[in-house]
Specification:
about 200 residues, two-stranded antiparallel ribbon, two-stranded antiparallel sheet
Length: about 200
């Protein structure tokens, strides 16, 4: 709920006040990390909640819960983009907001829903990470994840200019990038070299 509220904040900056999306995202990205450090005193905060830990470490039919969540979210997003009116208006708004607006699409509402959904999913990822580590570290958790997300989308062939999306390609891109990095590390390549 807090993450979704952050999406409302970002969406409002973009839709109502015309702030560039990357700037609005960076504003909350930097401020949010600062707020988290302020609330935690810059210290590692431990969690011992079995329900929360299940999100990160649990298994359903032998499949790790993060994989189940990824497949579920990807399937829902694929369905929404492919078979719903909102999916079509989302692609139209992403491709050319001015043309979509002239065609009668409520681009502000479409954009706001996209920001809220994106932020809520980012919050879910945060809960998964906390479930895996049983701790929250405002100083280190999530560093560079935003660049991994952009790279996964770019590798999938989805243009960063909008208008088209490949949900399956993005999932494959994310898995391949992580698999490549983890394989290199498992083969003894230093983490810094593996990142390159």
């Amino acid at each position: 709920a807090v993450a979704a509220a952050c999406g409302v904040f970002n969406g409002t900056l973009v839709v109502r006040y015309g702030v560039q999306p990357i700037i609005a995202t960076l504003i909350l990205f930097i401020a949010g990390r600062g707020i988290a450090q302020l609330l935690s005193g810059g210290k590692l905060t431990g969690f011992r909640n079995p329900g929360l830990q299940f999100l990160g470490l649990g298994r359903i039919a032998g499949v790790p819960m993060p994989v189940v969540l990824m497949l579920l979210v990807a399937a829902v997003l694929w369905f929404v983009v492919r078979y719903t009116g909102y999916g079509r208006t989302l692609l139209a708004t992403g491709g050319n907001a001015a043309a979509a607006r002239l065609a009668g699409v409520r681009t502000g509402r479409v954009t706001m829903v996209a920001y809220i959904a994106s932020a809520a999913l980012a919050g879910l990822v945060g809960l998964v990470v906390i479930g895996i580590t049983a701790a929250s570290d405002a100083n280190n958790v999530g560093l560079g994840v935003e660049l991994d997300a952009i790279a996964a989308v770019a590798v999938s062939g989805t243009p960063l200019t909008g208008g088209r999306i490949s949900v399956v390609g993005t999932v494959v891109g994310a898995v391949m990038l992580r698999l490549l990095q983890n394989t290199l590390i498992a083969q003894g390549v230093p983490r810094e070299i593996a990142q390159i």
